[in-house]
Amino acid sequence: MGSLIITLFLVALDQTVVATAMPTIVGELHRLQSLSWPVTAFAISESLFATMDLGTGAVAPGAYMVLCGLGLGVMGQNLLLAVQTTTPAADRGAATSAVTFARGVGGAVGVSVLGGVFAAGLAPGQAALTPAAVQALPEAVRHATQPAFADAITGVSAWTGPIMLAAAVLLAWLPDVRLSHRD
Q1: Is 30 left (phi over 0), alpha (psi -120 to 50) or beta?
Q2: Consecutive 10-residue runs of the chain (183 residues): their mean pLDDT?
Q3: What residues contact residue 96 under an 8 Å CB cut-off, 6+ apart?
Q4: For the whole prediction, is pTM greater than 0.90?
Q5: Cβ atoms of residues 33 and 176 within 8 Å
């Protein structure tokens, strides 16, 4: 359990450092095309999560989470940076609001859809089980139930990986717009 908490802490730290540094780096590069690699990193991490099973050790998920943190940490801030620097100054507030609104709606829809994918991967009644309820099950039943949850989680990643790869392909087709630079 301690290694999982340390791994989650490192991913959060990784995402924070990357999210703070990358807008500056992309601003110095002055290129919108730099948005496609974080989406690709996130897509690869999700695809790798889909390969996990109960026999996967602790190191592999940690590495996948670092890759995921690199992708997510860069993606969010750079998308906002790209929108703000390619929008006329008079419309910048509205554009920023639109991005924030789209993220909120996308997050709500994404959680709903992927929650449905997760629940569909479970047997009837299993989706209502809490972690405490699973731990309270008799050992034989618990050992039969835990793989179902692991399979349902990897099923979610099996859906998100290809979606993010498609997003990376679409981003690669964006014109290479030079971002504005203010000294």
Answers
A1: left
A2: 63 64 63 68 82 84 83 73 83 90 88 89 84 87 84 86 82 69 51
A3: 80, 83, 84
A4: no
A5: yes
